[in-house]
């Protein structure tokens, strides 16, 4: 049995954590949690996230690439959408910018943070991090288009006051997001699957389908436990969110930091999986995970909050400010220069990490 498959089968604790987290959620739901209970919830929240990573990897190993990357990308986006919608339902007026802040944070974390770290690790390990420029370029172009349509255009439209879409514009953005995401998934999994498979320095495609895969029963069990873990993560995160909001306010930080915290939380499984792939010389898989999550974050979150806005009383602010639009423009420009050659050095990884660091600094000190 391969080392990957062995690791996937031996982590028995991951079968126990999701049910326990669900029981804890049942006992804490809707309650004002004291400090010690917040700490317990935070512990199980982290454990549930790590369990979700494990079970998503089992399912991914069963179905193979690039389907496996898609499984984890959609899974973490479900967490993100659920958190955003539930928090906006609690206080729509106060959380008017939560969707924008969380989605933009996800874009910065994935396209700069995760991509930068994985390129850096791949380049350190093999001097050059290699990937398929055709597939990665298509994914990055879709992310840039979705970000522009959903986060940049609202700043310049005039139908509504402020950086908001009118109802017609919001419907268009939601439909365009779903259609583009659907086209990408079709391209990635059906028409041009080979564009998204790992490659070697010589340009040869590496298809891992020949590796021993988990049994169908094991994959089905992991899929069920993945669902339990995701439900637990959403519920437990909602339980500790008031503590997060109070902590951000007490520290004198901008309210947008809450969106950053949510994005960091939901993208933790993606980050761990991407780093593991990079350490196994599968940089293309890392990029699939990162860009797929960015795309799913926009392509699924925007339609979800657009639908939720029908019954939410407060405004839905999506337009970015000047500093964030500048960072997005720099990310697009640097990303193009990184992707076109199909290989990257440690410098490329360092540049993306520097952009991510700039985003974090501006998030804490606008």
TrEMBL record:
InterPro entries with a match to the protein in the record? Alkaline_pH_Ca-Antiporter (IPR052946), NaCa_Exmemb (IPR004837)
Q: Which domain of life is it from?
A: Bacteria
Name of the protein this chain belongs to:
Ionic transporter y4hA
Q: Which residues form the Sodium/calcium exchanger membrane region domain?
A: 37-189, 222-363
A Pfam short name: Na_Ca_ex
- Membrane topology summary: Multi-pass membrane protein
So where does this one cross the membrane? 12-30, 36-55, 67-88, 103-124, 136-153, 165-184, 223-241, 253-275, 287-311, 317-339, 346-365
Broad class of the protein's primary localization: membrane
**Source species of the chain:** Yinghuangia aomiensis
Key words, A-Z = Membrane, Transmembrane, Transmembrane helix
What subcellular locations does the record give?
Membrane
């Amino acid at each position: 049995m391969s080392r990957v498959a062995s690791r996937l089968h031996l982590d028995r604790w991951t079968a126990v954590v999701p049910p326990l987290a669900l029981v804890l959620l049942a006992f804490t739901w809707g309650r004002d949690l004291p400090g010690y209970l917040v700490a317990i919830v935070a512990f199980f929240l982290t454990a549930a996230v790590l369990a979700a990573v494990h079970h998503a990897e089992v399912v991914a190993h069963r179905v193979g690439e690039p389907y496996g990357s898609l499984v984890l990308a959609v899974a973490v986006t479900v967490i993100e959408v659920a958190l955003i919608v539930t928090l906006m339902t609690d206080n729509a007026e106060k959380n008017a910018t939560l969707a924008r802040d969380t989605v933009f944070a996800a874009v910065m974390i994935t396209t700069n943070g995760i991509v930068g770290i994985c390129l850096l690790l791949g380049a350190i390990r093999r001097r050059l991090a290699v990937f398929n420029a055709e597939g990665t370029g298509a994914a990055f172009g879709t992310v840039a288009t979705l970000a522009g349509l959903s986060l940049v255009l609202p700043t310049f439209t005039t139908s509504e006051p402020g950086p908001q879409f009118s109802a017609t514009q919001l419907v268009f953005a939601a439909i365009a997001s779903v259609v583009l995401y659907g086209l990408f998934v079709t391209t990635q999994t059906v028409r041009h699957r080979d564009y998204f498979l790992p490659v070697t320095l010589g340009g040869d495609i590496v298809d891992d389908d020949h590796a021993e895969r988990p049994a169908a029963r094991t994959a089905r069990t992991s899929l069920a436990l993945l669902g339990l873990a995701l439900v637990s993560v959403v519920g437990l995160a909602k339980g500790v969110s008031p503590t997060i909001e109070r902590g951000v306010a007490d520290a004198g930080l901008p309210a947008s930091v809450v969106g950053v915290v949510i994005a960091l939380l939901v993208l933790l499984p993606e980050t761990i999986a991407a780093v593991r792939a990079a350490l196994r010389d599968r940089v293309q898989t890392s990029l699939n995970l990162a860009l797929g999550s960015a795309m799913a974050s926009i392509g699924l979150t925007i339609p979800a909050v657009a639908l939720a806005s029908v019954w939410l009383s407060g405004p839905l602010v999506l337009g970015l400010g000047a500093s964030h639009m500048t960072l997005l423009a720099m990310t697009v420009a640097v990303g193009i220069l990184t992707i076109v050659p199909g290989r990257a050095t440690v410098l490329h990884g360092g540049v993306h990490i520097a952009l991510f660091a700039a985003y974090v600094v501006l998030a804490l000190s606008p």
